[in-house]
Amino acid sequence: MHTAVDAFHATLEVTERLVRFFKTKSAQDLAGTMAFFARRARYIDATLGWDLGSWSELHAFFAQYMPGWPKNSASYPVRILGDLRSAVVFFTDTAGLFGPSELRLAGAVDFERGLITRQVDYWDGRHFGLENLAGLQMPTDQFPAEFGEKAVTGTSSVIMRRVVRDLAGSLGRGDGAGAARLFSPDAVFEDAPSHVRIEGRRAIGAYLTDAVGLLPYTGAGTAVRHALGNELGGGFEFTASEGPVPRGIVGLELDRWQRISRLTAMWDGSLVDDATLLSLAQRAIER
Q1: What's residue 2's pLDDT?
Q2: 91 within 8 A of 78, measured Cβ to Cβ
Q3: Is 56 helix (H, G, I), strand (E, B) or coil?
Q4: Which CATH class is domain 158-282?
Q5: Distance (Å, whole) CA 111 – CA 287
Q6: What percentage of the chain carries pLDDT values higher than 90?
Q7: String of b and e for 132-143 (b: at least 16 CB within 10 Å)?
Q8: Which CATH class is domain 6-136+145-152?
Q9: Do the strands 37-45 and 50-52 form a parallel or antiparallel pair, or are they unpaired?
Q10: What pLDDT is stored for residue 1 in this prediction?
Q11: Cβ atoms within 10 A of the Cβ of 253, count?
């Protein structure tokens, strides 16, 4: 393991399960890795548009890549949110696993009887490197139309679904003040592709109001694809029918009063131009 895992907003069972999964994967143990997946498992890379729709396709994928992984390379979790029904896991793939650069990802993971039935990984293509990304992404019209969410309904808790519904509703209406009321007073807001980090409920509300329509999970046309997690943490995958970024994921940590104490958004920054990212950063300046 390369770093301590932040699992304060996850159950012990899902933490142990995912830590073992990543250790086995890093050890290039193909059979052991595949033992963590259900036979009806589906894996999607939401940035590249790769859709592995069966256990056998996923097996073939790892069988192709694992033998070429560099010595001492690793895939390891950094933060886990949720339980053994569903979770959001932030993790790192070191350079050489799936390209010449490291990957920092946020995965949506659904389980059944402890086995992974669905995994969708989201990451920022800009962090990977625009040159490294070229040629890997599927054409836009060849991305999967759905991400297997209909096969895993009801894997999140009632509490998380309520928080997600209220937050996504406020964000979709452009109601930054309404969204801010769902946060704890000392909450932290992080948008990974724009490198924006804001502390405090008032400042978060002001930013969400000012950046509506620029952040891909705010404004008209946004919707929840799938909610994940429990009363500790989790989040939701989102879709956006307007604007250049059609999908992404938002990780949520909840406090004991079921308020959001930390929000972390991950989406593909390669889909927007430099000016958009600069505008998102400028809107974080407090006056």
Answers
A1: 59
A2: yes
A3: helix
A4: alpha beta
A5: 45
A6: 97
A7: bbeeebeeeeeb
A8: alpha beta
A9: antiparallel
A10: 47
A11: 25
Is residue 112 packed enough to be buried (19+ CB in 10 Å), middle (13-18) or exposed (0-12)?
middle
Q: How confident is the model at residue 134 (pLDDT cuts 50, 70, 90)?
A: confident
The tally of CA atoms less than 13 A away on the side-chain side of residue 71 is 0
3 CB burial (10 A radius; 0-12, 13-18, 19+): exposed
Phi and psi for 153 in degrees, rounded to 5? -70, 150
Residues near 166 by beta carbon (within 8 Å), at least 6 away in sequence: 182
> Please, is 210 exposed, middle or buried when counting C-beta atoms within 10 Å of its C-beta (0-12, 13-18, 19+)?
middle
pLDDT at 135 over 90: no
Mean pLDDT to the nearest integer, 153-169: 97
Mean pLDDT value of segment 86-115: 96
Q: Are strands 103-112 and 86-93 parallel, antiparallel or unpaired?
A: antiparallel
- List the domain boundaries for the chain: 6-136+145-152, 158-282
CA distance 242 to 246: 7
Distance CA 115, CA 207 (A): 39
Task: Report how far residue 42's alpha carbon sits from residue 57's, in angstroms, rounded to the nearest whole number.
Answer: 9
Q: How many residues does the chain have?
A: 287
Q: Is residue 26 scored above 60 in pLDDT?
A: yes
pLDDT in tens, 264-276: 999 999 999 999 9
Sheet holding 183-191, edge to edge: 196-199, 183-191, 260-267, 247-254, 233-240, 222-229
User: In a 3-state reduction of DSSP, which class is residue 286?
Assistant: coil
How far is residue 251's CA from residue 265's CA, in Å, rounded to a whole number? 6
